[in-house]
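[agent] plan:
  1. take the single chain provided in the ticket
  2. run structure prediction with default settings
  3. attach structure tokens to the ticket
  4. add a short note for the reviewer (M.T.)
[agent] executing step 1
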Amino acid sequence: QSPFPQHNIMSVAARHILKKHKGSRRPASWRCDNVTQSKEEAIAQINEIRSKLMDILAAEGKDAMEAAFCEIASVESDCNSAQRGGDLGVFQRGQMQKPFEDATFSLEVGEISEIVDTDSGIHIILRTQ
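[agent] step 2 finished; step 3 output follows
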């Protein structure tokens, strides 16, 4: 048994918002056939979204923030999971890119990650389970 409780977790569930950039491994999405924005632009967009979500959390609480996360993901995320409000369902270690996995498994349920940079693009993650 690890002294860090999150090391004992076998699976998590999460939502995410992804912004792709021209350096992403597949710079296309349901929103745009050819993503041309820079990594810096993607980071700025995710920072703005995260800031908005944190403001909602502070002013209106966790339920309002989670509802806003789903709504924003459905419009802004470059992942096909946007159709499900960014919902990726349940996954185990080894199923996602390592930086994404590490970030998600380190979160508490209901917590939003800092920016996560993977080969797919720039993410923020909301752990739901």
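[agent] step 4 note for reviewer: The two ends are 21 Å apart (CA to CA).
[agent] ticket updated
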